[in-house]
């Protein structure tokens, strides 16, 4: 099974997290062929050069040849590249598993947090673009922890 892993890859924290999670996904089954864009040095060695067309062509080719996409939705907003890749996967009917671990989603039954929504600039929750998450839900699912992500991947195999 070919899996495309989409997440930001511009900070050391993002690179480390991607590598750690990719290793866990690869351990699920030997049949998994996971594409992690940061491992493609021909376009993502930041000491070298790759223009926008080279990056778009290389990653889109891998995405279009995938059986499943994993999209990390964390951050101030969904990474622009990840959002674009979600659109491509949706249009090509490639199933998508979104991973959204933002801790601000917790406390949905806390009345003080809910009441704060009525006050200007006191949203206690994190917002994720509804169009983009809708594309995922129309062609997959969103989970909020690694354990559920790994189980969802295993279900696709």
From TrEMBL:
Annotated GO MF terms: 5-hydroxymethyl-dUMP N-hydrolase activity; transferase activity
Keywords: Transferase
Any Gene Ontology biological process: deoxyribonucleoside monophosphate catabolic process
Domain of life according to the entry: Bacteria
Entry annotated with the keyword Transferase: yes
Keyword Transferase in record: yes
Protein name: Nucleoside 2-deoxyribosyltransferase
Originating organism: Lactobacillus kimbladii
């Amino acid at each position: 099974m070919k899996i495309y892993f989409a997440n930001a890859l511009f900070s050391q924290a993002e690179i480390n997290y991607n590598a750690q999670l990719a290793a866990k996904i690869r351990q699920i089954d030997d049949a998994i062929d996971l594409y992690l864009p940061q491992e493609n040095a021909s376009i993502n060695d930041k000491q070298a050069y790759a223009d926008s067309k080279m990056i778009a062509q290389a990653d889109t080719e891998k995405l279009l040849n995938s059986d499943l996409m994993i999209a990390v939705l964390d951050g101030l907003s969904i990474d622009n590249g990840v959002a674009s890749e979600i659109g491509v996967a949706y249009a090509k009917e490639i199933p998508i598993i979104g991973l959204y671990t933002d801790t601000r989603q917790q406390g949905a039954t806390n009345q003080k947090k809910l009441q704060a929504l009525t006050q200007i600039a006191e949203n206690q929750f994190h917002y994720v673009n509804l169009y983009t998450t809708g594309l995922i839900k129309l062609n997959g699912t969103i989970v909020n922890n690694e354990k559920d992500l790994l189980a969802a991947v295993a279900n696709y195999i």
